[in-house]
Amino acid sequence: MKRKSCHGEAVDAVQIKTPEAAAENLNYKEALINLLFQLSDDDFIVAYRGSEWLGLAPHIEEDVAFASISQDTMGHAAMFYKLLEDLGVGPVDSLAHARTAAERKNAVLLELVNGPGTYIKEPQYDWAFAVVRHYFYTIAKKIKMVALMSSSYSPLAEAAARVNIELYYHHLHWKTWFSQLMSAGGEARTRMEAAIKKAFDTAGDLFSYGNMAGDITGFNLIDESSALQEKWLEQLKMVFDSVDFALPEQLGIKMGNGRDGQHTKDLEEALSVLSEVYRFDPAAAW
Amino acid sequence: MTAVEAKKVPDNLARDLVLKALYSVMDPEIPSVSIVDLGMLHDISIDGSRVEISLIPTFLGCPALDIIKGNTEKALMALGEFTEVDVRFIYNQIWTTDRVTEEGRLRLKEFGIAPPPRELKDGGWEVDCPFCGSPYTTLDNIFGPAACRSILYCRSCKNPFEAMKPVSNLM
């Protein structure tokens, strides 16, 4: 396999078809593992945050829909963790449950709490934030999956094609909520605008690949982050135009870059709750 | 010669046996439809007393997958022809609702689930009520009690019902 030169110009397209072939080049394998953690950790934590809404969504149909979407998303996380397991990184369950916050590579937007309280005690969750977060993420994920379908690592390219199909209904769902709440005016609009601001303040790492970006794109695992982010902003702009709202000027990483392991205490708390049963008996079969 | 080799049947006969066994493995959430009729079977590979089955998951997050894997292994071991059974899910094939067989569509309806619409017309659906056959139905929720199902309502016989959610390569 050829490595890219330091300026990142195109290299011969070499397809890596198996985990064994990926392991032949340590730099390739390391970049691949890093990217797979970004993808799996994103889906894992956002599916968890979605599942916390169970029984609390605005109406019963939404409860069913959101639960179903979160279940699909957890399935995607499991598949990406499985790709890591195939590379010898560790068993799926321990990758999902036993890693500390500092080891996680998810984007910070996806880990933030749904609102004050917990799902058991006085949940004052913010539905506007849920709609904005899941809508923005679904668009970003779809763009990534389409890009990954040309990944140099074949198992990842094939997995992305699978995930992409399942995103169709997720996208339709969140787009409907987003457009309707944005068009509703009054409190809905005010809260949506606040949620958009919050999302833009933290979502700067959604398309970041962190400190291994050079190798991740250099080995043609996925396209450059700037190109993908540009597509994301274009799509958002079209939707924002339709509801008469200006795209915020800047994407920030106010709470850190999750790709480099920078996270909030929200993630630490989530991990301690979600992995409680796993830690109780790590050897148990699920 | 071991006992297993002694009773070994020719591969083409073994294949028929395996297929028959696979037809007996039902979707735990739709017990009238076999995994073959759901279009989940990708490949059967037989090598002496070893059989390898590859299955295509319907939805990646489907919680029934582990149960299906277990039931498939049990059904194949019960044949008594194999000492080694390997059932695995593959991710390099895409499951779409076009893979559901004619028999599968009938069985879905029998269970009270409308089969998936064959064509998406302008993104819309045309689903007949599985109970009275009326086309006068409305979509209540794209998402249903299982990843592969949606909830609809029949305005003719006033029954809520479920339909298999159309999944296509065009999405």
Automatic annotation (TrEMBL), chain A:
<dbReference type="Pfam" id="PF05138">
    <property type="entry name" value="PaaA_PaaC"/>
</dbReference>
<dbReference type="GO" id="GO:0010124">
    <property type="term" value="P:phenylacetate catabolic process"/>
</dbReference>
<dbReference type="InterPro" id="IPR011882">
    <property type="entry name" value="PaaC"/>
</dbReference>
<dbReference type="InterPro" id="IPR009078">
    <property type="entry name" value="Ferritin-like_SF"/>
</dbReference>
<dbReference type="InterPro" id="IPR052703">
    <property type="entry name" value="Aromatic_CoA_ox/epox"/>
</dbReference>
<dbReference type="InterPro" id="IPR007814">
    <property type="entry name" value="PaaA_PaaC"/>
</dbReference>
<dbReference type="GO" id="GO:0005829">
    <property type="term" value="C:cytosol"/>
</dbReference>
<dbReference type="InterPro" id="IPR012347">
    <property type="entry name" value="Ferritin-like"/>
</dbReference>
<protein>
    <submittedName>
        <fullName>Phenylacetate-CoA oxygenase subunit PaaI</fullName>
    </submittedName>
</protein>
Automatic annotation (TrEMBL), chain B:
<dbReference type="InterPro" id="IPR002744">
    <property type="entry name" value="MIP18-like"/>
</dbReference>
<dbReference type="Pfam" id="PF01883">
    <property type="entry name" value="FeS_assembly_P"/>
</dbReference>
<dbReference type="Pfam" id="PF23451">
    <property type="entry name" value="Zn_ribbon_PaaD"/>
</dbReference>
<dbReference type="InterPro" id="IPR052339">
    <property type="entry name" value="Fe-S_Maturation_MIP18"/>
</dbReference>
<protein>
    <submittedName>
        <fullName>Phenylacetate-CoA oxygenase subunit PaaJ</fullName>
    </submittedName>
</protein>
<feature type="domain" description="MIP18 family-like">
    <location>
        <begin position="17"/>
        <end position="87"/>
    </location>
</feature>
<dbReference type="InterPro" id="IPR034904">
    <property type="entry name" value="FSCA_dom_sf"/>
</dbReference>
<dbReference type="InterPro" id="IPR056572">
    <property type="entry name" value="Zn_ribbon_PaaD"/>
</dbReference>
<dbReference type="InterPro" id="IPR011883">
    <property type="entry name" value="PaaD-like"/>
</dbReference>
<feature type="domain" description="PaaD zinc beta ribbon">
    <location>
        <begin position="115"/>
        <end position="165"/>
    </location>
</feature>
